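Table S5 (text form). Sequence records supplied for joint modeling of the two-component complex.
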Amino acid sequence: MSADRNAYWAGVADEVYGLADSSVNVEELPERSNDECVAYGVQYQGIGGYPLFAYLTLPRGDGPYVPLFQATGYASVVGVPTRERSVKYAVFAPCHRGQRLADSGYQAAYPGLLTDGLPGASSYVWRSVVADSLRAIDVFLGRPEVDGSRLAIAGNDLGALLASLRPDVKSLLVVTPLLLLDGPGRASGTFAYPLQEYNDFHRTYGNQWGEALETLSLYDPIGGATDIFANTMIACVSGEKSAADFLAATIPGGAEVYVNIGRGFIDHAAQENWLADATGAPRTPGPFLPR
Amino acid sequence: MITSDPSLFTSSVVKPDDFDQYWADTLGATDTVPLNPRLTPDEMRSTDEIEVFEARYDSYGDIEIAGWYARPRNFAGKLPGYLFVPGYVSEPKLPNDLALRGYAAFSAAPRGKLRSNSVFNPGYPGLLAHNITKREEYGYRGFYMDAVQAFDFLAGLDEVDETRIGVQGGSQGGALTLLVASLRPDQVACGSAGAPYLCSMMDSAALTHSYPYEEINDYLRIHPEHESAVRETLDLHDIHNFVDRIRCPMIVSVGMRDDVVPPETGFAVFDQIGSTDKKFYSYEDCGHDAGTGDGHVAIVDAFMDSHLSPIAVGGAA
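The corresponding structure-token record, covering 608 residues in total, follows.
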């Protein structure tokens, strides 16, 4: 990690660390609980005193459980963790600021979130998105039901960035779409959102593009890949493979790159089985119930 | 009846006696609200090839609804229209890809979606169970009308050929595709419904633990005494009961291992579609993707293009 990058993220980490003693409120959600797992709503603060929310689910039992942190995606909605995961992991599904349930002071736009606040590194909204995620990990690992020595992260490539900033991540499942990994570079070959946001910004604010690229480079997981020590799988589509291969080659311990075959049931099973094996959790049947 | 062969499934949905009257009344109430269509150019999302607009219109209950509209920048004569209807949790896509393919494309954000949620905002989870025991106040009543009004918005644009408008979507978008084609049977030229949601809803809840249908299970777990009222509301809003009105060419796809929308319900609703020009695609080893990663996107594109004849647009982004 470069000196500039180190200093930038150290500043964010310091701000997050300053929240260590702030209040956390955990409340059971009876309507989202069932005979196999219990769901909770967790309310806590992000940097700047921003109110945040997360779903926490726990298997019914004694624990401690493998903690599975679901990195936020590019979407307004964060869902209740799936039954498939909730029966065997402690699952934390946080909302970053701007997403539903954490939108009291800022509402993210789609499209819009990926470039909001560019070009400045201090004003880019993803600085807060990452900070909210780091704070969420701390809140999660503060729960007595989790085994903090087995932390796993699953999600888009924000998860890889988080793993580069948290050496305690032991397992990392990165899934498509990749938004940050060479995002501006890959955007030049598409007009599909969300990557198209980079093109829109470039076209509209050409004179700010150089500064924006410097900021975005701080968020590219490749810049921190040498600090990823987790057992890693990158599950991508064929158009993302070269970027995924580059990331895998840069991670010191390497990573498995799985290219989706395009049949969702098989691709889903491959990813979830890998995650179970990596974390030591049991493999379980997928979400499609037997007939 | 649930069997090991999804194609043999029999839906338990019953069409209420007042189904036709209820929806005639709902459409009538919607007609009393002036559509009041507005378009605002969005220069940041526009390119040399396409123009993008933020859209607004008014719908059932005087609620303002948002959308995106995109069209080729250069065209002569009329454009074919393409209505894209969104999934349950996803925000409506900005249809620049469809404009680049030569369509006047509208992507609707029915009530509760971002930009359409200042009055009605049940959240996710939330929408499927919103007022689920109050049949006339059920959340999807107005939501359905927002989709129909989105079609009317598109059909009313000067540059759109009202004889060449298609509808397409997946999951909830698949349901809304079938709905709009049912309620505008003489105007919709063709439709493509992927993994259609909101079909045989009570049966679906029994076949999965996945959201959104899990919302029904969640509700009945807490309120088992309300099951008959829930079924009554859902039967009144079940897409299965609309589709015998469809007259346009229609394609439907399902994933045979879909945990979100049980494939059985796709077979059942397809059987009910009134059009004789219809085709069903089932994809083994696919889930809620319903073949989109396995070649179905090209099938949808070819189907829509063959019926709507988009214009040629040069270049890309």
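Note: The longest strand of chain A covers residues 37-45.
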